[in-house]
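Blackboard transcription, Thursday session:
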Amino acid sequence: MQTLFKTLFKCIRRSPSGQDEDRDRFLAKTENFRLLLAANNKALEGMAQATEDAQSSAVFSMAHVRAQCLMIASNVRQMIERLCLMAPGRYDALRDVFNARVLAMEKAMDEGALVDDGPLVLEMEDICADSVPQTGAKMAMLGEVRAALGVEVPRGFSITAASFGRIMEQTGLGDEINRLIQIHDSDTLDGLRLLEESIRHAIDMTVIPQDIEQAVKKSCQIFGKVRLAVRSSAIGEDSEDASFAGQFASKLGVKADDVLEAYRRVVASAYSSTAMSYRLNRGLRDDAVIMCVACMEMINAKAGGVVYTRSPMGRHDRQVLVNAVPGLPSAVVDGSSLVDSWVVDRESLTILDRHIAVKDVCHGVATNGRIIRERLSGERSGAPSVDDTFVKELVQQALRIERYFTHPQDIEWALADDGRLVFLQCRPLAVCEPHDEVPSEMERTEDAGAILFDACDVASPGVAGGPVFPVAADEDMSQFPDGGVVVSRSARPQLSVLMAHASALVTDYGSSVGHLANVAREFGIPYLIAGPGAFEQLSGVGVVTVNAMNGTISLGLRQSQLDAAVTTDSVVLGNDVRMALQRVLPCLVPLSLTDPESPDFVPENCVSLHDITRFCHEKAVNEMFMGGERLTSNARKLVGKTPTQYWLIDIGGGTVETADTARVTLNDIRSNAMQAVWRGMTAIPWDGPPPVAAGGLMAVLSEAASNPALTPGMANSMGERNYFIVGRQYCNLQSRFGFHFCTIEGFAGDDPTENYALFQFKGGGADMARRSRRTAMIGTLLERHGFIVEIRDDALFARIEGVEADAVEQALVVAGYLLVHTRQVDMVCADIASIDRYKQKFSTDINALLSGKMTDIHDWRCGA
Amino acid sequence: MQKIKLLLVDDEKDFLTVYARRFIRRNADITLASSGQEALQAIRDAEFDVVILDVLMPEMNGIETLRRIKAIKPDLPVIILTGHASSKAMIEGMDIGAFDFLIKPVGTDELYFRVLDAVRSRRQAQE
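(Written on the board underneath:)
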């Protein structure tokens, strides 16, 4: 590194004023200027990425958005600091402007992530629909039906949003969780699991504030020996467009003394890998999680289940679906067992269909309060869980609830051993848009012999195909291929992690009213329940087509079925994270400060962070080359036979010493790096504007007219400020060529580890599509010559590092050539053939240049 | 090539080890500190070219540590590197005079270049 310092900052051979103080000040300025430019590039790069993200359909987390915004902001702040160092005292006002903009950015980001104030604990008697912000919808809806309809619900209380907020704030747990999310890799399942573990540990380590502990203990007193169910009731959970079905934990059979422990478990389940990946894929915010927890007495159930007051498939709108199992209803929703089912007519309450399954397990509460899993056999496994009379009564009550909320309901119920019907949960039911069934006869004839399963239960509609991927255990999931068909024995809610990547889903067991089915419908993935043996039979068969229109699974990709399927427009879902990013963009990117000559060009008028970068950049250029005292004399006009529009600043050994403080000639240049750049720029003259393909020129002109930053006055004023900063082995060129903004930088010394060449550019006069095409073409050429290239939209960043000096020089020749010659390309880039032609020409030219046939330093002929 | 003397302050042991290993390969002399107090002691005891500092640490947080470092060695460049993506911490840190504010995870290259910038900036200001 020292060689570089020496070269750049010590060996000043030419010091026009002859004073060390001046020289040092100038060098400090140069260094600050360089850092300012680097920060400028990074900030603009970040802004381009944020803009792209806001429009893309890619999934990303709030942690990503937060980091992105902060990265942009910290680079902008870096620019301010550098500018303030370049001209002490002159731009201090920028800091206040910046701080205000960042606060606005923060506010825009946090909208919708508010923690409610209120009581730490709320009793069921005091809970109604208005309690949603304090207790979450699950608890609030139970409180509401109890108060309004007089239906029976369990006794209980809610540990509220205020408690959650207090814990997150007071103990620093919220910051810690955000930090863990920030530093962990959440792109992979393994990364997510590690993250889950770290967060759970952090939650375990957190001391729950005493007032919360007291309040919970007090509420528990009335229960005595009765066990509790401690269940999630997160804000936003169970809403119509984001069910979070089965994502969060429920603890059953909890002793009053252990409620706080169970509370921790439920809170931690908000950060399970399943829940986090669900949020990521659904675009929901991790930092908006508010986990309220419902604590309710356990009902000693002899049967339980779920009622859907409409078919979730939306086809049979006169039907109510009832599912039931003996014992606790948990087996219905977690998909672990077959269930009894009834279809009941909404109007007449006639039972239209009844299916009594052979049930092999039953969950119950043991006398000691523990939850036990009992095997069923013989008569018990074949008996109906409840009788038809009860089913009718249940449907009647369920329809009352639906009428009250004026929306189809998904209701969980239990039949207590003393005969009471108790409602455990009610929530809005998402109903798919009805569409016509594909006539099943057609495929059967056409694809005869290929059908592996038919008459499967449809749990989520659609048709899709892909390779079968059997999931027997959680570990299998990390290998899951995009577009695979998930095949599993049971409908474990954990499988929802895969929904964003799967094409279809098949399980042996499960039900259309289970959690997993809910999630599959949310993601618009066809889901079939194929019955016992499907897992074994499908494992290893390769590619299948899952037709959840007619309930069949066929071997291979059945194009006719895929084509015939009505594409289910999956409901356009709100995406909180993208919305937060979109809200934040106005604080970041719009450029309102465009005319540096205007009296309005002042810090106070910087509305966005982009404005601040624009302001800093302009002022830094001024400070460097226009402003101030004798130092201006360091910048000299570069002349050939005629003056060029380049300025040159020698920071040490880059030019031959002359007495002329105003001009420097091409022959005076000693910097090997600059010689290379100049050779690339001039060895092959620019042909002038190319013949323009139809519409090409218009496209360029209309873009120029609509983009104030590209108005001619602007281009000219910047055009006067193309400058080389050179040292003996160093060159930095900042240039605005027409509509392009470009940086070339290189150091070509004796130590390869210090050597590098950079080429960056952005912009152009044509529309984005042409600019991107041209950028891609240049990227290919650069890669061919050893650059590592990164492209974002029309912005290109290319670099070479750690090579010998002559390799850097060659790279700089290539960069110089491309700088000059590519500006003609965006006019013709509508036309792929002409792109190829240019690519061919550029390639030939560059090879000629590098083979040493053209080594002279040419005079400036481009007239740029 | 002269070695860069770098002080790395973070309460997370894993993080320290990983970055220390990566930087040693890049010709840097690394001293580790796992708390603000340790960091202050280290800079009283030895000369450093640059400090990399975490924000969320028990007892003395990074911002407070930065304030005290600046009181002892005003010109020692401090790069804040944190998983705590907070604007407030960023503004406070930069107001106190941090050289830069970076958010984890940061690539080794990127961090190394920032370290070089910080070191160069200071050496050049001293000359």
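Lecturer's comment: Chain B touches chain A through 30 residues (CB under 8 Å).
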